[in-house]
Design brief:
The chain is an all-alpha fold. It is 98% helix and 0% strand. It contains one helix and no strands. The mean pLDDT is 91.
């Protein structure tokens, strides 16, 4: 009989302890997985921001080029208008 009482006592102590350890382990694994997901999202946002910055720089360069071309066209148009006025 004493062996049975001791087994019951050990089982009563072991199973709740094992459940508590299992709960804390699952909580730890969940925190690690959430941190990995957050890190992946942060990396994705950094990559998007970097691509956006590069695209904005390229757009600015293109706009400057278009501005220079437009100024050149306006200058040529003014010369053509002046020639046409002289012809009249």
């Amino acid at each position: 009989m004493p062996q049975t009482t001791e087994s019951i006592f050990l089982a009563a102590f072991f199973f709740p302890s094992a459940a508590a350890v299992l709960v804390f382990f699952m909580k730890y694994v969940s925190a690690v997985l959430q941190a990995r997901v957050r890190l992946a999202q942060d990396e994705a946002y950094r990559e998007i921001a970097q691509k956006s910055s590069i695209a904005q720089s390229e757009t600015t360069t293109a706009l400057v080029s278009f501005g220079a071309t437009l100024t050149d066209i306006q200058t040529r148009l003014a010369v053509v208008e002046k020639i046409l006025k002289q012809v009249e």
